[in-house]
């Protein structure tokens, strides 16, 4: 049974299931979800707890199975926690997890809590995850996207009886806060808690937030790609500055930008050959958020502009490898910023 993260509280209020699976790549929210399940379990008399972390292909699952099938000498109910950081339990683990899943039905003495990283589609359609999902509750914990981050911050502030000003000033405050913590939700949580220590309950001004909140944002090249394709120039520059400061490899940043440009050119060529846009996108394996961005961008990019972008990507490829190109900055990061701006402005 799949459950949305925001439905967990109401679900726990109605009663506990004997098996929960948390999977995703947002550590703060996964930890909070696990804490909520543990708290509900303790309230229901699950006073014993055992924990296992699966590391390596030769992990001994016999102890896990024994724990899952045994009762404590000192308590009627226990919590069994299994962490699989790799998301790959292996052959023995797959069999063990299916056994645990089947024994979970009707088992009121053991609550099993399994924590996994973000899973790909093949894993989620595999036998062991299917058994867990079919016999328990699975919750996918997704990152908070940039567009939803101001609202998330406002909700967290409200939990400690703080708020920003109403109207435009408050929106500027939340946007500033989001820019400072993007991609680092755990640090965002800590910055919110710091505001509770520094200021009393009530309204927070933009000046107070600017003075208190540190720049703890973390970026990756895939989010950079989405920002550039969305035409978000200021955010794209900020992300490039952050990636440079974090020591990201220029060649990886160039690959992300160049791959988007190559996809634009391929799809434009396919459309020139008579294929409709949805078919051209599918044939080039463009789907999800990137598909929606391309659907908006492609009709605004001329064939000539697509060709120019491809030539620009070729020039910057040489620059990041130490080969100067006429009309382009010699510095790799300056060249990457110029390429990103050309792509961001292509759909305007």
TrEMBL record:
Gene3D superfamilies given in the database record: 1.10.8.60, 1.20.272.10, P-loop containing nucleotide triphosphate hydrolases (3.40.50.300)
GO cellular component: a single term: DNA polymerase III complex
Pfam family name, one: DNA_pol3_delta
GO molecular function terms listed in the Swiss-Prot or TrEMBL record: DNA binding; DNA-directed DNA polymerase activity
Record flagged with keyword Nucleotidyltransferase: yes
Entry similarity comment: Belongs to the DNA polymerase HolA subunit family.
Listed name of the protein: DNA polymerase III subunit delta
The organism of origin for this protein: Comamonas testosteroni
Lineage: Bacteria, Pseudomonadati, Pseudomonadota, Betaproteobacteria, Burkholderiales
